[in-house]
Amino acid sequence: MKTGDSRRYVRVAYQGGPGSHSERAGLTLLKERFTGWPFASFADAAAALANAQADLLLLPIHNSTTGDIGDALEAAKVFISLGEIELPVEHYLLGVPGVRRNELRVAWAHPQVGMQCRGWIERSGLEVRIVDDGARRAPDFLASNLRHVGVLGPIGIGTATGLYPLEGPIQDRADNRTTFRLLARAGGNTKTISAHMREEVLT
CA-based angle 106:112:118, to the nearest 5? Predict the structure, then answer.
């Protein structure tokens, strides 16, 4: 986006919550123009763009450990791509402040996080429950002061909410990476629109 009067914030729909890797990807791509709008699912985030409620959509489409992220690719297919970014992805075991690792019995994890940390989960001794997203649930989790439950996810969740890292990184591969795709609505001459949006948003 050009500097000066044309500069504006960009409302970006994404799946996750404060401190998530998707939020980090948006901030990396758009810097101070990024205004994140978190949703519980890829489909809900995609609907916000389709209905013109959001300016753009940001989705994780591939992970180096788990492969293509099918639900995200399905949500992305009706939109045009403005570009992609690949980021290293680390996960941690997070708990409420003051809790000790040996107090935990259960851990919550997004499906992708669970698959990327499969080996650690098998060794952890914890019951892992798959939830829509640890980042979205973190504020309520913190307020509830659940001392027997942890959250698996990026350390940014803790920075954003106050949860404390107890162990990590815990992903199975040290070189774990995710590719994120920035998307816009299609319409008219898609090729022309795509080039125009790239210039306006990413410069």
Answer: 60
Question: pLDDT digits over 94-141, tens only?
Answer: 998 899 999 999 998 989 999 999 999 999 999 998 887 655 666 666
SS3 content of the chain, % helix, strand, coil (to 5): 35, 30, 35
Q: For residue 64, report the phi and psi dihedrals to the nearest 5 degrees.
A: -65, -20
Q: How far is CA 177 from CA 12, 45, 64, in A?
A: 21, 22, 5
pTM of structure:
0.85
Query: All domains of the chain, ordered by start, with CATH?
Result: 10-88+176-202 (3.40.190.10), 92-167 (3.40.190.10)
- Cα–chain-centroid distance for residue 128? 19
Residue 124 token pair: 């952890």
